[in-house]
Design brief:
The chain is built from 15 helices and eleven strands. The protein has 461 residues and is α/β, with parallel strands linked by helices. The strands form four sheets. The protein has a five-stranded parallel β-sheet with strand order 3-2-1-4-5, with helices on both faces.
Length: 461
Amino acid sequence: MTKLTAIFQLVDGILIAGCYAIIHSNHRIVWQDKDTLLILISLVVFFVIAKKYGLYRSWRISTVVKESFNICTIWLYSLIILVFLGYLLQQLQYFRPQIIFTWLIATPICLCVWHVFARKVSHFLRIRNFNSRSVAILGYSELSKRLANTVNNATWMGLHFCGYYDDRICSDGSRLTKDDLEDEFFKGNLDDLVKMARLGDIDIIYITFPIFAEKRIQEIIRAFCDTTANVYLAHDFDSYNILSGRWDMLGEVPILSIHESPFHGVNDWTKRIEDILICIPILMLISIPCLIVAISIKLESPGPVIFKQRRYGLNGKEFSIWKFRSMKHIENETNVPQATKDDPRITKVGRFIRKTSIDELPQFLNVLSGKMSIIGPRPHAVVHNTKYRKIVDRYMLRHTVKPGITGWAQVNGFRGETQTTDKMKKRVEFDLFYIRNWSLLFDLKILFMTFKACIFNKNVY
Protein backbone atom coordinates (compact mmCIF):
# COMPACT_ATOMS: atom_id res chain seq x y z
CA MET A 1 0.00 0.00 0.00
CA THR A 2 1.42 3.40 -1.00
CA LYS A 3 1.44 6.38 1.33
CA LEU A 4 -1.07 8.16 -0.92
CA THR A 5 -3.47 5.19 -0.75
CA ALA A 6 -3.12 5.07 3.04
CA ILE A 7 -3.91 8.79 3.26
CA PHE A 8 -7.01 8.37 1.10
CA GLN A 9 -8.26 5.45 3.15
CA LEU A 10 -7.65 7.41 6.35
CA VAL A 11 -9.58 10.45 5.10
CA ASP A 12 -12.41 8.22 3.78
CA GLY A 13 -12.63 6.50 7.17
CA ILE A 14 -12.73 9.84 8.97
CA LEU A 15 -15.51 11.08 6.66
CA ILE A 16 -17.61 7.92 7.13
CA ALA A 17 -17.26 8.02 10.91
CA GLY A 18 -17.56 11.81 11.04
CA CYS A 19 -20.80 11.88 9.06
CA TYR A 20 -22.36 9.35 11.42
CA ALA A 21 -21.15 11.24 14.51
CA ILE A 22 -22.46 14.61 13.25
CA ILE A 23 -25.85 13.15 12.26
CA HIS A 24 -26.06 11.32 15.59
CA SER A 25 -25.22 14.51 17.49
CA ASN A 26 -27.88 16.52 15.63
CA HIS A 27 -30.54 14.07 16.79
CA ARG A 28 -29.45 14.59 20.43
CA ILE A 29 -29.25 10.85 21.12
CA VAL A 30 -26.92 9.42 23.76
CA TRP A 31 -23.86 7.74 22.19
CA GLN A 32 -23.60 4.03 22.97
CA ASP A 33 -21.01 1.29 22.45
CA LYS A 34 -23.33 -0.06 19.75
CA ASP A 35 -22.74 3.11 17.72
CA THR A 36 -18.97 2.68 17.92
CA LEU A 37 -19.28 -0.96 16.89
CA LEU A 38 -21.56 0.00 13.98
CA ILE A 39 -18.97 2.47 12.67
CA LEU A 40 -16.12 -0.02 12.99
CA ILE A 41 -18.06 -2.73 11.13
CA SER A 42 -19.11 -0.25 8.44
CA LEU A 43 -15.47 0.75 7.88
CA VAL A 44 -14.35 -2.87 7.58
CA VAL A 45 -17.17 -3.69 5.14
CA PHE A 46 -16.58 -0.51 3.11
CA PHE A 47 -12.85 -1.09 2.68
CA VAL A 48 -13.30 -4.78 1.82
CA ILE A 49 -15.79 -3.92 -0.94
CA ALA A 50 -13.68 -0.92 -2.02
CA LYS A 51 -10.73 -3.26 -2.58
CA LYS A 52 -12.91 -5.52 -4.75
CA TYR A 53 -13.98 -2.52 -6.85
CA GLY A 54 -10.43 -1.14 -7.08
CA LEU A 55 -11.44 2.20 -5.56
CA TYR A 56 -7.90 3.03 -4.50
CA ARG A 57 -6.09 2.00 -7.66
CA SER A 58 -4.30 4.55 -9.80
CA TRP A 59 -6.42 7.46 -11.05
CA ARG A 60 -4.61 7.21 -14.37
CA ILE A 61 -6.92 4.36 -15.40
CA SER A 62 -10.22 5.55 -13.93
CA THR A 63 -12.42 8.57 -14.70
CA VAL A 64 -13.91 10.81 -12.03
CA VAL A 65 -17.44 9.81 -13.08
CA LYS A 66 -16.66 6.12 -12.77
CA GLU A 67 -14.97 6.63 -9.40
CA SER A 68 -17.93 8.63 -8.04
CA PHE A 69 -20.30 5.94 -9.30
CA ASN A 70 -18.15 3.28 -7.60
CA ILE A 71 -18.18 5.20 -4.31
CA CYS A 72 -21.98 5.37 -4.30
CA THR A 73 -22.26 1.68 -5.22
CA ILE A 74 -19.73 0.58 -2.59
CA TRP A 75 -21.46 2.62 0.12
CA LEU A 76 -24.90 1.28 -0.84
CA TYR A 77 -23.56 -2.27 -0.73
CA SER A 78 -21.97 -1.57 2.65
CA LEU A 79 -25.23 -0.40 4.22
CA ILE A 80 -27.16 -3.32 2.72
CA ILE A 81 -24.66 -5.72 4.29
CA LEU A 82 -24.87 -3.86 7.63
CA VAL A 83 -28.65 -4.11 7.68
CA PHE A 84 -28.46 -7.77 6.69
CA LEU A 85 -25.97 -8.47 9.50
CA GLY A 86 -28.22 -6.61 11.92
CA TYR A 87 -31.11 -8.80 10.86
CA LEU A 88 -29.10 -12.02 11.27
CA LEU A 89 -27.83 -10.96 14.69
CA GLN A 90 -31.27 -9.65 15.73
CA GLN A 91 -29.85 -6.17 16.36
CA LEU A 92 -32.02 -4.15 13.99
CA GLN A 93 -33.46 -2.18 16.91
CA TYR A 94 -30.15 -0.32 17.11
CA PHE A 95 -30.47 0.89 13.52
CA ARG A 96 -32.22 4.23 13.98
CA PRO A 97 -33.98 4.90 10.63
CA GLN A 98 -33.63 8.70 10.82
CA ILE A 99 -29.86 8.39 11.30
CA ILE A 100 -29.24 5.54 8.84
CA PHE A 101 -31.19 7.21 6.02
CA THR A 102 -29.35 10.53 6.41
CA TRP A 103 -26.05 8.65 6.71
CA LEU A 104 -26.88 6.79 3.49
CA ILE A 105 -27.24 10.09 1.59
CA ALA A 106 -24.63 12.30 3.27
CA THR A 107 -21.65 9.93 3.31
CA PRO A 108 -21.28 9.27 -0.45
CA ILE A 109 -21.74 12.99 -1.12
CA CYS A 110 -18.88 13.84 1.25
CA LEU A 111 -16.70 11.04 -0.15
CA CYS A 112 -17.34 12.09 -3.77
CA VAL A 113 -16.62 15.78 -3.02
CA TRP A 114 -13.35 14.80 -1.32
CA HIS A 115 -12.25 12.49 -4.14
CA VAL A 116 -13.16 15.03 -6.84
CA PHE A 117 -11.24 17.76 -4.98
CA ALA A 118 -8.18 15.51 -4.65
CA ARG A 119 -8.38 14.65 -8.35
CA LYS A 120 -8.60 18.32 -9.31
CA VAL A 121 -5.49 19.09 -7.27
CA SER A 122 -3.70 16.13 -8.84
CA HIS A 123 -4.83 17.19 -12.34
CA PHE A 124 -3.62 20.73 -11.69
CA LEU A 125 -0.19 19.39 -10.74
CA ARG A 126 0.04 16.84 -13.55
CA ILE A 127 -0.65 19.27 -16.38
CA ARG A 128 2.30 21.25 -14.97
CA ASN A 129 4.45 18.11 -15.27
CA PHE A 130 4.36 17.24 -11.59
CA ASN A 131 4.06 13.46 -11.07
CA SER A 132 3.64 12.89 -14.82
CA ARG A 133 4.68 9.66 -16.59
CA SER A 134 6.10 9.15 -20.08
CA VAL A 135 4.46 6.44 -22.19
CA ALA A 136 5.71 4.45 -25.17
CA ILE A 137 3.80 1.88 -27.21
CA LEU A 138 5.58 -1.16 -28.65
CA GLY A 139 3.77 -2.39 -31.75
CA TYR A 140 2.07 -0.34 -34.46
CA SER A 141 -1.59 -1.24 -35.08
CA GLU A 142 -5.14 0.07 -34.77
CA LEU A 143 -5.07 -0.90 -31.07
CA SER A 144 -1.86 1.12 -30.66
CA LYS A 145 -3.51 4.17 -32.22
CA ARG A 146 -6.51 3.82 -29.91
CA LEU A 147 -4.19 3.66 -26.89
CA ALA A 148 -2.28 6.72 -28.06
CA ASN A 149 -5.51 8.68 -28.60
CA THR A 150 -6.69 7.73 -25.12
CA VAL A 151 -3.45 8.98 -23.57
CA ASN A 152 -3.42 12.20 -25.58
CA ASN A 153 -7.09 13.03 -24.95
CA ALA A 154 -7.07 12.31 -21.20
CA THR A 155 -4.73 14.91 -19.72
CA TRP A 156 -6.04 14.10 -16.22
CA MET A 157 -4.10 10.84 -16.40
CA GLY A 158 -0.81 12.71 -16.21
CA LEU A 159 0.58 10.61 -19.07
CA HIS A 160 2.79 11.94 -21.87
CA PHE A 161 2.85 9.93 -25.10
CA CYS A 162 6.42 9.65 -26.44
CA GLY A 163 5.81 7.56 -29.54
CA TYR A 164 5.44 4.18 -31.22
CA TYR A 165 8.14 1.55 -31.50
CA ASP A 166 8.04 -1.60 -33.60
CA ASP A 167 10.47 -4.41 -34.37
CA ARG A 168 8.94 -5.84 -37.54
CA ILE A 169 10.97 -6.79 -40.60
CA CYS A 170 9.95 -5.43 -44.01
CA SER A 171 9.69 -7.61 -47.14
CA ASP A 172 13.18 -6.57 -48.26
CA GLY A 173 14.70 -7.69 -44.94
CA SER A 174 15.13 -4.16 -43.52
CA ARG A 175 13.73 -2.82 -40.26
CA LEU A 176 10.49 -0.87 -40.19
CA THR A 177 11.10 2.90 -40.36
CA LYS A 178 9.16 6.14 -40.01
CA ASP A 179 9.06 6.46 -43.81
CA ASP A 180 7.40 3.04 -44.14
CA LEU A 181 4.58 4.03 -41.78
CA GLU A 182 4.38 7.73 -42.65
CA ASP A 183 3.72 8.52 -39.00
CA GLU A 184 5.70 11.22 -37.21
CA PHE A 185 5.19 9.48 -33.87
CA PHE A 186 7.08 6.36 -34.96
CA LYS A 187 10.40 6.61 -33.09
CA GLY A 188 12.28 3.38 -33.71
CA ASN A 189 12.66 -0.32 -32.95
CA LEU A 190 12.88 -2.44 -29.78
CA ASP A 191 16.57 -1.67 -29.21
CA ASP A 192 15.84 2.05 -29.31
CA LEU A 193 13.04 1.66 -26.77
CA VAL A 194 15.19 -0.44 -24.43
CA LYS A 195 17.90 2.23 -24.51
CA MET A 196 15.32 4.94 -23.69
CA ALA A 197 13.94 2.86 -20.81
CA ARG A 198 17.43 2.20 -19.41
CA LEU A 199 18.13 5.94 -19.42
CA GLY A 200 14.91 6.49 -17.46
CA ASP A 201 13.27 8.49 -20.26
CA ILE A 202 10.33 6.07 -20.51
CA ASP A 203 8.21 5.22 -17.45
CA ILE A 204 5.42 3.08 -18.94
CA ILE A 205 5.50 0.68 -21.89
CA TYR A 206 2.42 -0.89 -23.49
CA ILE A 207 3.06 -4.00 -25.62
CA THR A 208 0.34 -4.41 -28.27
CA PHE A 209 1.66 -7.45 -30.11
CA PRO A 210 -0.90 -10.17 -31.01
CA ILE A 211 -1.52 -12.56 -28.14
CA PHE A 212 -0.35 -15.54 -30.22
CA ALA A 213 3.17 -14.01 -30.43
CA GLU A 214 3.92 -15.52 -27.02
CA LYS A 215 7.62 -16.31 -27.58
CA ARG A 216 8.33 -12.87 -29.02
CA ILE A 217 6.54 -11.19 -26.12
CA GLN A 218 8.59 -13.24 -23.63
CA GLU A 219 11.80 -12.09 -25.33
CA ILE A 220 10.64 -8.48 -25.18
CA ILE A 221 9.73 -8.71 -21.51
CA ARG A 222 13.19 -10.16 -20.73
CA ALA A 223 14.75 -7.22 -22.57
CA PHE A 224 12.91 -4.79 -20.28
CA CYS A 225 13.98 -6.65 -17.12
CA ASP A 226 17.13 -4.53 -17.21
CA THR A 227 15.06 -1.35 -16.87
CA THR A 228 12.79 0.17 -14.23
CA ALA A 229 9.91 0.86 -16.66
CA ASN A 230 6.41 -0.43 -15.91
CA VAL A 231 5.46 -2.90 -18.66
CA TYR A 232 1.88 -3.78 -19.62
CA LEU A 233 0.31 -6.11 -22.18
CA ALA A 234 -2.56 -4.56 -24.13
CA HIS A 235 -4.87 -6.77 -26.17
CA ASP A 236 -8.12 -6.16 -28.04
CA PHE A 237 -10.33 -8.42 -25.93
CA ASP A 238 -13.44 -6.79 -27.40
CA SER A 239 -13.01 -9.03 -30.42
CA TYR A 240 -14.06 -11.96 -28.20
CA ASN A 241 -17.42 -10.32 -27.32
CA ILE A 242 -16.66 -10.73 -23.62
CA LEU A 243 -19.66 -10.90 -21.27
CA SER A 244 -18.87 -9.79 -17.69
CA GLY A 245 -15.21 -10.66 -18.17
CA ARG A 246 -12.87 -10.77 -15.18
CA TRP A 247 -9.50 -12.18 -14.27
CA ASP A 248 -9.41 -15.09 -11.83
CA MET A 249 -7.10 -17.88 -10.71
CA LEU A 250 -7.62 -21.61 -11.23
CA GLY A 251 -5.02 -22.96 -8.85
CA GLU A 252 -1.87 -21.16 -9.98
CA VAL A 253 -3.14 -20.54 -13.51
CA PRO A 254 -4.59 -17.07 -14.32
CA ILE A 255 -7.77 -17.26 -16.40
CA LEU A 256 -10.02 -14.70 -18.09
CA SER A 257 -13.76 -15.28 -18.14
CA ILE A 258 -15.29 -14.70 -21.58
CA HIS A 259 -18.95 -15.57 -20.86
CA GLU A 260 -19.96 -15.33 -17.21
CA SER A 261 -22.89 -14.13 -15.14
CA PRO A 262 -22.18 -10.99 -13.08
CA PHE A 263 -24.17 -12.53 -10.24
CA HIS A 264 -21.61 -14.53 -8.32
CA GLY A 265 -20.45 -14.16 -4.72
CA VAL A 266 -21.53 -10.85 -3.15
CA ASN A 267 -23.39 -9.74 -6.28
CA ASP A 268 -25.57 -12.85 -6.22
CA TRP A 269 -27.10 -12.36 -2.80
CA THR A 270 -27.08 -8.56 -3.22
CA LYS A 271 -29.34 -9.01 -6.25
CA ARG A 272 -31.53 -11.45 -4.27
CA ILE A 273 -31.89 -9.03 -1.34
CA GLU A 274 -32.76 -6.26 -3.81
CA ASP A 275 -35.51 -8.43 -5.31
CA ILE A 276 -37.00 -9.33 -1.93
CA LEU A 277 -36.86 -5.77 -0.53
CA ILE A 278 -38.65 -4.40 -3.62
CA CYS A 279 -40.97 -7.35 -4.20
CA ILE A 280 -42.64 -7.61 -0.77
CA PRO A 281 -43.89 -3.97 -0.59
CA ILE A 282 -45.11 -4.18 -4.19
CA LEU A 283 -47.07 -7.38 -3.49
CA MET A 284 -48.72 -5.66 -0.53
CA LEU A 285 -49.67 -2.67 -2.69
CA ILE A 286 -51.05 -4.67 -5.64
CA SER A 287 -52.99 -7.31 -3.68
CA ILE A 288 -56.37 -5.50 -3.92
CA PRO A 289 -55.97 -4.45 -7.60
CA CYS A 290 -54.96 -8.02 -8.46
CA LEU A 291 -58.11 -9.33 -6.77
CA ILE A 292 -60.25 -6.94 -8.85
CA VAL A 293 -58.48 -8.00 -12.08
CA ALA A 294 -58.95 -11.67 -11.21
CA ILE A 295 -62.67 -11.21 -10.69
CA SER A 296 -62.99 -9.23 -13.96
CA ILE A 297 -61.22 -11.96 -15.94
CA LYS A 298 -63.42 -14.66 -14.45
CA LEU A 299 -66.62 -12.74 -15.17
CA GLU A 300 -65.75 -11.96 -18.79
CA SER A 301 -64.74 -15.41 -20.06
CA PRO A 302 -64.46 -18.99 -18.79
CA GLY A 303 -61.09 -20.46 -17.93
CA PRO A 304 -58.37 -20.04 -15.30
CA VAL A 305 -57.43 -16.59 -14.00
CA ILE A 306 -53.72 -17.32 -14.06
CA PHE A 307 -52.00 -18.32 -17.28
CA LYS A 308 -48.90 -20.49 -16.89
CA GLN A 309 -46.40 -20.92 -19.68
CA ARG A 310 -43.07 -22.72 -19.90
CA ARG A 311 -40.15 -20.33 -20.30
CA TYR A 312 -36.37 -20.57 -20.19
CA GLY A 313 -34.86 -19.22 -16.96
CA LEU A 314 -31.42 -19.11 -15.38
CA ASN A 315 -28.90 -21.36 -17.18
CA GLY A 316 -31.54 -22.25 -19.79
CA LYS A 317 -33.64 -24.30 -17.35
CA GLU A 318 -37.40 -24.28 -17.92
CA PHE A 319 -39.85 -22.84 -15.38
CA SER A 320 -43.52 -21.81 -15.32
CA ILE A 321 -44.09 -18.08 -15.63
CA TRP A 322 -47.33 -16.66 -14.18
CA LYS A 323 -49.47 -14.05 -15.91
CA PHE A 324 -53.10 -12.96 -15.74
CA ARG A 325 -54.97 -14.65 -18.57
CA SER A 326 -55.66 -12.10 -21.31
CA MET A 327 -56.90 -14.36 -24.13
CA LYS A 328 -60.03 -16.38 -24.75
CA HIS A 329 -58.14 -19.56 -25.52
CA ILE A 330 -54.82 -20.38 -23.89
CA GLU A 331 -52.81 -23.03 -25.67
CA ASN A 332 -49.51 -24.66 -24.80
CA GLU A 333 -48.85 -26.18 -28.17
CA THR A 334 -45.64 -26.51 -30.15
CA ASN A 335 -46.44 -23.44 -32.22
CA VAL A 336 -47.30 -20.45 -30.03
CA PRO A 337 -47.65 -17.29 -32.14
CA GLN A 338 -46.95 -13.99 -30.38
CA ALA A 339 -49.84 -11.62 -29.84
CA THR A 340 -50.31 -9.13 -32.68
CA LYS A 341 -52.28 -5.94 -33.20
CA ASP A 342 -56.07 -6.57 -33.13
CA ASP A 343 -55.46 -10.22 -32.18
CA PRO A 344 -58.96 -11.83 -31.95
CA ARG A 345 -57.85 -14.09 -29.09
CA ILE A 346 -57.46 -11.14 -26.70
CA THR A 347 -60.45 -10.30 -24.45
CA LYS A 348 -61.57 -6.78 -23.58
CA VAL A 349 -60.14 -7.06 -20.06
CA GLY A 350 -57.09 -8.74 -21.56
CA ARG A 351 -56.43 -5.87 -23.94
CA PHE A 352 -56.46 -3.40 -21.06
CA ILE A 353 -54.23 -5.41 -18.75
CA ARG A 354 -51.75 -6.14 -21.57
CA LYS A 355 -51.60 -2.50 -22.61
CA THR A 356 -50.91 -1.40 -19.03
CA SER A 357 -48.73 -4.48 -18.26
CA ILE A 358 -51.05 -5.42 -15.39
CA ASP A 359 -51.05 -8.96 -16.76
CA GLU A 360 -47.39 -9.24 -15.63
CA LEU A 361 -48.17 -8.60 -11.93
CA PRO A 362 -48.41 -12.28 -10.87
CA GLN A 363 -44.75 -12.59 -11.86
CA PHE A 364 -43.83 -10.94 -8.56
CA LEU A 365 -44.69 -14.34 -7.09
CA ASN A 366 -42.12 -15.84 -9.48
CA VAL A 367 -39.63 -13.31 -8.12
CA LEU A 368 -40.45 -14.19 -4.52
CA SER A 369 -39.91 -17.88 -5.28
CA GLY A 370 -36.48 -17.12 -6.75
CA LYS A 371 -37.25 -18.18 -10.33
CA MET A 372 -37.17 -14.61 -11.64
CA SER A 373 -35.74 -11.20 -10.84
CA ILE A 374 -37.55 -7.87 -10.97
CA ILE A 375 -34.95 -6.53 -13.42
CA GLY A 376 -33.49 -8.77 -16.12
CA PRO A 377 -33.96 -10.02 -19.70
CA ARG A 378 -37.59 -10.85 -20.43
CA PRO A 379 -38.16 -14.63 -20.71
CA HIS A 380 -39.44 -15.90 -24.05
CA ALA A 381 -41.62 -18.91 -24.75
CA VAL A 382 -39.66 -22.14 -25.20
CA VAL A 383 -40.64 -22.35 -28.87
CA HIS A 384 -39.27 -18.86 -29.50
CA ASN A 385 -35.99 -19.75 -27.79
CA THR A 386 -35.69 -22.83 -29.99
CA LYS A 387 -36.14 -20.64 -33.05
CA TYR A 388 -33.99 -17.64 -32.21
CA ARG A 389 -31.04 -19.40 -30.60
CA LYS A 390 -30.24 -20.74 -34.08
CA ILE A 391 -30.42 -17.43 -35.94
CA VAL A 392 -29.48 -14.72 -33.39
CA ASP A 393 -25.84 -14.61 -32.35
CA ARG A 394 -25.24 -15.00 -28.58
CA TYR A 395 -28.98 -15.33 -27.95
CA MET A 396 -28.60 -17.90 -25.14
CA LEU A 397 -26.23 -15.64 -23.18
CA ARG A 398 -29.39 -13.86 -21.98
CA HIS A 399 -29.88 -16.88 -19.74
CA THR A 400 -26.69 -16.42 -17.74
CA VAL A 401 -28.88 -14.34 -15.38
CA LYS A 402 -32.41 -14.76 -14.03
CA PRO A 403 -35.17 -13.47 -16.33
CA GLY A 404 -36.90 -10.29 -15.23
CA ILE A 405 -40.33 -8.72 -15.13
CA THR A 406 -38.82 -5.70 -16.86
CA GLY A 407 -35.45 -5.01 -18.41
CA TRP A 408 -33.18 -2.62 -20.28
CA ALA A 409 -34.54 -3.75 -23.65
CA GLN A 410 -38.14 -3.17 -22.56
CA VAL A 411 -37.60 0.39 -21.30
CA ASN A 412 -35.85 1.20 -24.58
CA GLY A 413 -38.91 0.26 -26.64
CA PHE A 414 -38.25 -3.42 -27.40
CA ARG A 415 -41.39 -4.84 -25.82
CA GLY A 416 -44.19 -7.00 -27.06
CA GLU A 417 -44.22 -8.42 -30.55
CA THR A 418 -40.94 -8.98 -32.40
CA GLN A 419 -42.08 -9.12 -36.04
CA THR A 420 -38.56 -9.37 -37.46
CA THR A 421 -35.28 -11.06 -36.58
CA ASP A 422 -33.63 -7.62 -36.52
CA LYS A 423 -35.91 -6.56 -33.66
CA MET A 424 -34.98 -9.68 -31.71
CA LYS A 425 -31.30 -8.97 -32.35
CA LYS A 426 -31.72 -5.48 -30.91
CA ARG A 427 -33.53 -6.88 -27.88
CA VAL A 428 -30.68 -9.33 -27.28
CA GLU A 429 -28.16 -6.51 -27.74
CA PHE A 430 -29.81 -4.48 -24.98
CA ASP A 431 -30.08 -7.54 -22.72
CA LEU A 432 -26.36 -8.27 -23.06
CA PHE A 433 -25.54 -4.61 -22.40
CA TYR A 434 -27.47 -4.90 -19.14
CA ILE A 435 -25.58 -8.05 -18.11
CA ARG A 436 -22.21 -6.42 -18.83
CA ASN A 437 -23.02 -3.20 -16.96
CA TRP A 438 -25.20 -4.42 -14.08
CA SER A 439 -25.26 -2.45 -10.85
CA LEU A 440 -27.85 -1.62 -8.21
CA LEU A 441 -28.14 1.94 -9.52
CA PHE A 442 -28.66 0.63 -13.05
CA ASP A 443 -31.50 -1.56 -11.73
CA LEU A 444 -33.12 1.43 -10.03
CA LYS A 445 -32.83 3.45 -13.24
CA ILE A 446 -34.61 0.70 -15.19
CA LEU A 447 -37.28 0.42 -12.50
CA PHE A 448 -38.11 4.13 -12.75
CA MET A 449 -38.04 4.05 -16.56
CA THR A 450 -40.45 1.10 -16.58
CA PHE A 451 -43.38 3.17 -15.33
CA LYS A 452 -43.02 5.60 -18.24
CA ALA A 453 -42.59 2.75 -20.72
CA CYS A 454 -45.74 1.02 -19.50
CA ILE A 455 -47.84 4.15 -20.04
CA PHE A 456 -46.47 5.46 -23.34
CA ASN A 457 -45.17 2.40 -25.19
CA LYS A 458 -47.35 1.31 -28.12
CA ASN A 459 -45.66 -1.93 -29.06
CA VAL A 460 -47.68 -4.16 -26.74
CA TYR A 461 -50.92 -5.82 -27.94
